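Attaching the record inline, Q. Sequence:
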Amino acid sequence: MHEASYYQVDSDEQLSCLLCPQGCKLAPGKTGFCKVRQHEGGQLIATNYGKVFSISLDPIEKKPLYHFYPGKPILSVGTIGCSLACEFCQNWQISREEAPCKIVNPSELAELALETHQTDGNIGLAYTYSEPGVWFEFLMGTMPIVHEYGLKNVLVTNAFLNPQPWLELLHWTDAANIDLKGFDEEYYRKLCHGKLQPVMDNIEAAVGKIHIELTTLVIPGENDHPAQIGAMAEWIAGLDPEIPLHLSRYFPNYKLAIPSTPEDTMEQAAEIARKYLKFVYLGNVAGSSDTVCPDCGTLLITRNGHNTQVIASRECPKCGRDLDWIMNTTLRSNK
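Structure, as predicted:
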């Protein structure tokens, strides 16, 4: 029974959760939208504290992060629950259902990350699979220890949190891949059961504080309209045109049976996004995901699946362009 952060007592019969924009108001015994925050005995309890569904050593590219320690492994860990309920969720068994978990404490998890750093070159912990934002209390216990060990904290997140808890997470975060699921409020409401604006605000708050990359799952007839792709890419470029955008091909899953996204649609979306952004990658599509210099086209990083070879170091070998992603072979000191 671990008391949650970010809630207020409205009365003897009601609590308000303040963690995310869902704004749940909970009577005794009731659980929030995320399915992991529950009103028990006048307190809000984080029922997923210490619950781990999966632990796996993954390539950093699998997050996907292409410009953060390319070629390095990272220990990936996830719990249950989510602040959104996407109709197309690929991990709905853990985000919307009660999946079997094992219990670990923050020290144990951080020590496992350190052990795999020493044996396998692991760079840290990636909090992924379901939404790490609803694991807030456990992350606040774990992430500082990870930094004490000289390792990195990575979020794979929908960024659907209220501003203050989001800033708390950013303080301990080194990099994040953020799901920008579309660029339309109606799309977020209909298919994600959430809101777009809080996500945009949190992305903007992260720029300049941590390394970020964005991912958009492209769904036919829903968020693949050329004007929407262009508006999204233009907005990202207004924050920083160097932010990598991963456009991922949709396949039917969970509650959504729309046929898979045609590869031609993916190529068109990438072409539009590249008018504004320096680095656009296609996911779940056959073909190259290499990184080239946006100024002269020189090959910088090759990728074959998740096998990565870094050719350049901190600047383009042909034109000398500065490459401001982290290319170190050793870990940098933490913030």
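Confidence is low (pLDDT under 50) at residues 328-335. The longest helix spans residues 106-120.

More tomorrow.
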